[in-house]
Amino acid sequence: MFASEVYTSRRLTLLAKMAEKGAKGLAIFLGNVESPMNYWDNCYKFRQDSNFLYFWGIDEPLFAATLDLESGEECIYGNDVDIDDIIWMGPQDSVAVKAASVGVANSRPYSDFAKAVAAARAKGREIHFLPAARHYTQMTLASILGLAPEEVVTAGKKGCAKASDALVRSVIGMRLVRDSLEIAEIDKACDLGYEMHTVARQGVKVGTVEQEIVGRMEGTTMCKGWGPSFATILTQHGEIFHCHSHEAVIEPGKLLVIDAGAESNVHYASDFTRTYPTAGKYTSQQRDIYQIVYECNELAFEFVRPGVRYRDVHLAVARHMLDSLSQLGLVKGDLDTMLAEGIAGLFMPHGLGHNMGMDVHDMEDLGENLVGYDDDQTRSPQLGLGSLRMARTLVPGNVLTDEPGIYFIPDLIESWKKDGVDKGMVNYEKLKEYYTFGGIRLEDDVLVTEDGARRLGSKRLPIAPDEVEAAMAAE
Amino acid sequence: MFASEVYTSRRLTLLAKMAEKGAKGLAIFLGNVESPMNYWDNCYKFRQDSNFLYFWGIDEPLFAATLDLESGEECIYGNDVDIDDIIWMGPQDSVAVKAASVGVANSRPYSDFAKAVAAARAKGREIHFLPAARHYTQMTLASILGLAPEEVVTAGKKGCAKASDALVRSVIGMRLVRDSLEIAEIDKACDLGYEMHTVARQGVKVGTVEQEIVGRMEGTTMCKGWGPSFATILTQHGEIFHCHSHEAVIEPGKLLVIDAGAESNVHYASDFTRTYPTAGKYTSQQRDIYQIVYECNELAFEFVRPGVRYRDVHLAVARHMLDSLSQLGLVKGDLDTMLAEGIAGLFMPHGLGHNMGMDVHDMEDLGENLVGYDDDQTRSPQLGLGSLRMARTLVPGNVLTDEPGIYFIPDLIESWKKDGVDKGMVNYEKLKEYYTFGGIRLEDDVLVTEDGARRLGSKRLPIAPDEVEAAMAAE
Lengths: 475, 475
Description:
Two copies of one chain form a homodimer. By secondary structure, chain A is of the alpha+beta class. Chain A has two domains: 4-175, 3-Layer(aba) Sandwich (Creatine Amidinohydrolase, Chain A, domain 1), CATH 3.40.350.10; 180-474, Alpha-Beta Complex (Creatine Amidinohydrolase), CATH 3.90.230.10. The first copy, chain A, is 39% helix and 13% strand. Chain A has a five-stranded mixed β-sheet with strand order 6-5-4-1-7, with helices on both faces. Chain A has a three-stranded antiparallel β-sheet with strand order 9-10-12, with helices on one face.
């Protein structure tokens, strides 16, 4: 938790932004409750709602808050403990003390939150809410607001129609620009991610079960941080993006994609990907593709500076990728035509990167397009570019990932071939040599600075192919 | 996952039990979906609903099942994947193949589940459902069944009034008696729990931050199993039962309570507690109390056999505890009177143990009293005995925890003193020497066998005080 002034100042900024937009009424914030794992009292590790945490700081379940956009009155809702709670959870500060610790003067019992919203609705006041990011919040907000559960969540990439556009845009505007306190926390999360990936790289040995490396990595994050910032991806099937099965034994000659990050104790994320040769040396085929992905990663970083659109960085990377793949004979034709036709999407069917902050895909619950696109940008329908989560014009304080990848996905290749999607620009014959290749992704976390960019964390994980092989040989 | 015959046989047994109870209509089972952590697509590690897993085996999100109690017809509901899913999740077996792998001949799309329930309701057929254990299940069942969300969950210890009593009792009857396959899995979970606690004990060093040990322990569970079976308790404040804060640095002269267990990859739990002297040697005051708790643990194990009520084992332990505490001068008076008045509850305000199986508190979502009490037993209102989760007459195949503890909780002691709860049987003056003591708990997992009991797992963690000190000295 930061000092109380941080939260007070954020709420004042929010009030000012809402006033600029002419918004009146009551802004409401519902914190998370415990999330049951297999029964009501056996819960996953508590994670507070990021927006609640950002404005109200209290990192505990069953809290809510209201901010009156006209009077500026703030109130935190939560329950004080009784003797039974003390036996199970120990002595606790009162809700009033907790509220004061984040600069809030008023506090009331939790059940008064619904009453406060009902009273404001009865007076015809507008209620500003953010889309719910969990089932409890969905169910509770729907009930309090008299809406259907599907009306209070983000549907698809466009956001939630019934949520407050003014509040959503104000929050996005604030959270997209990280201040120095936040950047220091992201650096910490990155340093922990570095440790996590180092433990992982040291564990890459033929014969090891993937799960053992995952256990050691995730254990590392919990020793000093909150835990993993998302479910670790560690797979010899890099062509499957969200492969969460870890039963396989590490075999020689494969590529192992490790995409993982840590969340700091105050809830800022890191997110790195490296791709290792399972037996310590890349084959010549692997090295050719690796070199392209590595160059794409470096190229993207060189492009990042204020005023540049990240969509254009994605396209510059796609262009370099196509150029290099054409030198390998995998694609053929005019470079601009290939780029315009989205041929790169066959090899990289995801975007170059996403915003990262308190959430690893920051604020994704508020609507991908609102978070990642300027008002004058429209999302491409193409495979790859269409998956780009961050397309905006960069400003200092933005934090994003730089994560190009090349994958050979047999089902996708066959589907393009069958449908002629490539318009003759893909060499399917040559591609057959790559059907068991898997995939390569290389990801760093980048801060947009006043005059350029900085890779986050104090050290960069080995990434150049020689550097990776040397690190593995030394371990 | 077990062989398909296991699940087929369980469903046949369930059908027979429901028929015995005269139940007709449709039994419905709603599996879990992914549980969002900070936004909809960043989820906690998937954990299937235990009852779904027990009868239908499929360990993946977004499945449901129906069992027609009259025709015996079974159906599994789930969605087949498309090319977008394949890019992100890899090629998948069809729902039909997955259904066949657990012995089910029929499968349909997920959305047909709600339709099947609606069709049965429209015909006036009875719908048998189990109480929901998560918010999504609560919201979805309520909507499908036309009930309020609070009507489909277990409220307090009595269970859920609208859920099917026949189904709840049938499931409890089956899951309370573990077969050899299940016991083998629990043994595995216990062996992993042994490793987890060994790593922990080796990490107990003055100056270490508690969180570092927790990280190493939980990492250990993920290397070979699903993960921790519940949030690890590791605290120098053993008097706070569910202390999940791990920021403290280990100080000399304290007691460190570690209560943690592992869940195997096929979802069976272990649960052990040990209490270590932070600097490697118990003080004389600590050793006196430790010896009592140790004797209570051993005594309970000796009592466990078929035909014995676990409530009586709890009382035998409470009696020995009071007898020993009176020798230390902490309580005074006639032993039977102290026992009847529940004086032991001041020192052990929890029950001696609980059922353990797929859930660490097995089936708690179905209602504590139905799971843990015979029909002719009523739950005591006393502190301690009233928290006993397992009071039943033991039968072979029961798996339970044996976890006596002694705690000195200043707020609780002061509250008893103020209200005269002890009727003069507590020596408050002497108790003042224990206000910074903390607490001790010692827990093993026990299987009721045909002729007695067996501690689960291949090895028992060091527990006798000399044995603990020797293990710590060797590390």
